[in-house]
Specification:
216 residues, mainly alpha, MetI-like fold, elongated
Length: 216
């Protein structure tokens, strides 16, 4: 018992490291969610386009990233782009990789929502004299968004958890802070249970919001 309390005390001394790690995880998640949502809607509109060529190109692009490991994508951005003359720090590389990944998954959610809008709605909008852009903005997207919000929130939760891979490129996020602490507090179960609890506390508001949305 005394050893356990000593380990807890040792972990408590690292709270500045943990706070920094939580801050990095929150910042990466926020950027990934915001940028990924905007890009995902743009890609999703293209994916659901009547143009087969555009739909195919967007689908091929998103399938590449949805079908490859997140860690590999982070490595490509962090290690390969500098060889092309694009120098990125670890935070920027992580943010780009996570935003792109989120956009690829969100695009499929958005495309499915657009396709689920009844054809009659489009016919009524067209007969009212609305242009295609107005139909999309005023009729299609509002209805599609209401249907896909629970799925979007679920994707946001996955993005927060996926952000842990940036620890592999030396970024001090919540997961990396656990690796730092475990060097001095040799109790991996205790340390990474605390790390897992941290991710749960970050994700729980989103999980709660998702459940509420599914009931409405």
């Amino acid at each position: 018992m005394d050893m356990f309390l000593d380990q807890l005390h040792g972990m408590a001394q690292y709270y500045p490291v943990v706070l920094k790690g939580v801050g990095v995880t929150l910042a990466l998640s926020f950027i990934g969610i915001a940028a990924g949502t905007v890009a995902g809607f743009v890609l999703g509109i293209g994916r659901a386009s009547a143009s087969r060529a555009l739909s195919f190109l967007v689908g091929a692009y998103t399938d590449i990233f949805r079908g490859t490991p997140v860690l590999v994508q982070v490595f490509v951005v962090f290690f390969v782009l500098p060889e092309a003359g694009i120098e990125l720090d670890s935070f920027t590389a992580g943010a780009i990789a996570l935003s792109n990944l989120a956009a690829c998954f969100i695009s499929e959610i958005v495309a499915a929502g657009i396709r689920a809008v009844p054809a009659g709605q489009l016919e009524a909008a067209a007969s009212s004299g609305l242009s295609r852009f107005q139909q999309l903005r005023l009729v299609v997207l509002p209805q599609a968004t209401r249907m896909i919000v629970p799925s979007l929130v679920g994707q946001y939760v996955l993005l927060v958890k996926d952000s842990s891979v940036v620890s592999a490129i030396g970024l001090l996020d919540l997961t990396r802070s656990g690796w730092v602490i475990v060097q001095s507090v040799p109790n991996g179960l205790l340390v990474f249970s605390a790390v897992g609890l941290g991710y749960f506390l970050i994700c729980y508001p989103l999980l709660y919001w998702s459940r509420r949305l599914e009931k409405t």
